[in-house]
Predict the structure.
Amino acid sequence: MKTHRIEIIDATAEDAVMIAEAIMDAVGPEIVAGMAGDHSREEVREVFARLAARDDTQYSYRNTRIALAPDGCKAGVCVSYDGGRLIELRRPFFAEARRSLGWSITDDEVDALPGETCAEEFYLDTLATLPQYRGMGIATALIDDARKKAHRAGLPLGLLVADDNSSARRLYESLGLRPFARRPFAGEMMTNLRE
């Protein structure tokens, strides 16, 4: 019997909707609802899809790698980038949120927000595996791939995990990531894990 491995490929702009769904899955329904305000989940997805199709945002397809499951189907998404670029990469997100979701935050306020990452790490921003492919090693393969990107950049890999997400934390710690600091994300303090 022939065994197949998980292949990791670069995302393209055509993967924007998949990337958007992965981002929303990773941040969770409560944060998505908070982002939406009076708008729908679908409008939030459209915002993330537009951002993913661009080349100058934190959620860009250029910062995204996709896992192909052994059956050849796209099964998972990982968005990662140099943490030192966060401010420049998140500006388009807030501009799009102002335009599409009615947010009132100014550019100066955006730049003054505390960062969920920093210049001293390569930030794993988003990690999501499609439900039907969970438990197959997709997330591990994507994390290993992000780690290789981090090492090529000369930085340790870092990420945030919510305090109530013990299963994700166990996975990250089993792969050598350790608690490093506490950082804010969407109004909630989370644990920054780092190599």
User: Anything to note?
Assistant: The chain has one domain: 7-194. The chain has a mean pLDDT of 95. The CA atoms of residues 108 and 144 lie 36 Å apart.
